[in-house]
């Protein structure tokens, strides 16, 4: 599935909606029209990203936490560039309580280690 946005010349730009992760997690994304890659590996993620970079397409990519933390070089590059390809990390269905947003580390470094602790 792709969303459409009108360009200045009146044409339409498409944004690809892509989800990668476990089969159970991706069932819902498939129902709402995302392009899905079930049980994706870091190699599959890398291939999807290479294709997006090569074609210069816009995309919203939803990644299950383990895959988002796989540390592929191209994923790191895409995240650093920002803008055209937006990457969102979501928790695993098997362990949602283990999810920790990547931005939490930055917040702790800037504001101090206790800033995200739950109060009494």
Key features?
about 120 residues, alpha/beta, five-stranded mixed β-sheet, 5 strands, about 40% helix
Quick summary of this structure?
38% of the residues lie in helices and 27% in strands. The chain is α/β, with parallel strands linked by helices and 120 residues long.
Tell me about this structure.
This protein has 120 residues and is an alpha/beta fold. Helices cover 38% and strands 27% of the residues. It is built from five helices and five strands. Strands 1, 2, 3, 4 and 5 form a five-stranded mixed β-sheet that branches. Helix 1 links the parallel strand 2 and strand 3. It is globular. It starts with a strand and ends in a 9-residue tail after the last helix. The mean pLDDT is 80.
Multimeric status of the protein: single chain
Number of helices: 5
Secondary-structure element sequence?
EEHEHEHHEH
Summarize the amount of helix as a percent range.
Answer: 25-40%
Write the layout of secondary structure elements.
Elements: E1 2-6, E2 12-21, H1 23-31, E3 35-38, H2 42-55, E4 58-64, H3 65-68, H4 73-81, E5 85-90, H5 103-111
Parallel strand pairs: 2-3, 2-4, 4-5
Antiparallel strand pairs: 1-2
